Here is the input.
Amino acid sequence: MNNLGAILSNQGDAAGGEYWLKKTIEVAPWYWLGFSNLGILYANQGKAAEAQEYFEKTLKLNERNITALNGLAALYLEQGKTREAKELFLKSLKINPEQPQIKEFLSQI
Here is the structure.
C-alpha cells in the first residue's frame, strides 16, 4: 500500500497517493515510512501544516529519519524558525554526513 501510494504521488496522482498512504498508516500505525511519505506529499502540495504534522509523527516513530528531519527543517525555514531548522539539519548531518544540499542550506543560515 505504501509503495503504491508513493508511486501514485510521484506520478502526479496526489489524491490516489494520499488515499493509499492513509490506508497504510490506518492498517500499520507503526509504519513510519507511510507518515514520512504523507509529509512529502503534503509538502509538495504546499500544505505546510499537514506536512509538518506528518513529519513530526514520523520522527516520533523514527527519530533518525533524515527525510522527515530535512522536510521539517525546510518547513521551519519557511516559517522563519531558523534556529529550529538549523538544529534539525545538524541532526540530519550527524546521521548522514553525505548530504551536500543540507550543508549548503546550513552555510546560508
Remarks:
- Residues 2-108 form a domain with the Serine Threonine Protein Phosphatase 5, Tetratricopeptide repeat fold (CATH 1.25.40.10).
- The chain is about 80% helix and 0% strand.
